[in-house]
Write a structure and sequence with these properties.
By secondary structure, this protein is mostly helical. The protein is built from 6 helices and no strands. The longest helix is centred in the last third of the chain and has 27 residues.
């Protein structure tokens, strides 16, 4: 979508309304399926027993809430911490897509941990891979936001 100069000059993050799109629905359905599958696997394998199980329970609850918050924040870009940096509609679209991608990444990380029967949390490489993917996504997003000025 090409915006006119007048639309660019009149940009105000408080007036931006995000409507449901097919892309948004696809991201939400994929994230929901991944989260539900993770919970089913974790409950079926009794992964919440013992001290390590309690840590996994805390982790899965935090990542589930993080996934939900990221997907909900897509509809309210003015509430994000980086909203002061968003100067045009193109940047808002990039910010929304980044939140959706991060939500799916959180859900995939949870699923991988549940499938591995929590062994990825014990091994030093598991969390490093998750952090690297998040950092790469953040850097790519920053690059695209800077380019969209």
């Amino acid at each position: 979508m090409k915006l006119t100069n007048q639309q660019q000059e009149e940009f105000d993050i408080n007036n931006v309304k995000v409507h449901r799109t097919i892309e948004g629905t696809i991201f939400e359905v994929v994230a929901a399926i991944l989260v539900i599958t993770t919970w089913i696997i974790a409950l079926a394998r009794h992964q919440f027993n013992g001290t390590f199980g309690e840590q996994w329970l805390t982790c899965i609850i935090a990542l589930t809430l993080g996934t939900i918050v990221l997907l909900v924040c897509c509809y309210y870009p003015r509430l994000s911490r980086s909203s002061y940096r968003l100067k045009n509609f193109s940047q808002v679209l990039i910010s929304i897509r980044t939140c959706r991608v991060l939500a799916v990444e959180f859900a995939v990380a949870m699923l991988c941990i549940a499938i591995s029967n929590c062994s990825l949390m014990v091994q030093p490489i598991g969390p490093k891979i998750f952090i690297a993917v998040i950092i790469i996504t953040a850097l790519a997003s920053s690059f695209l936001l800077h380019r969209a000025k």
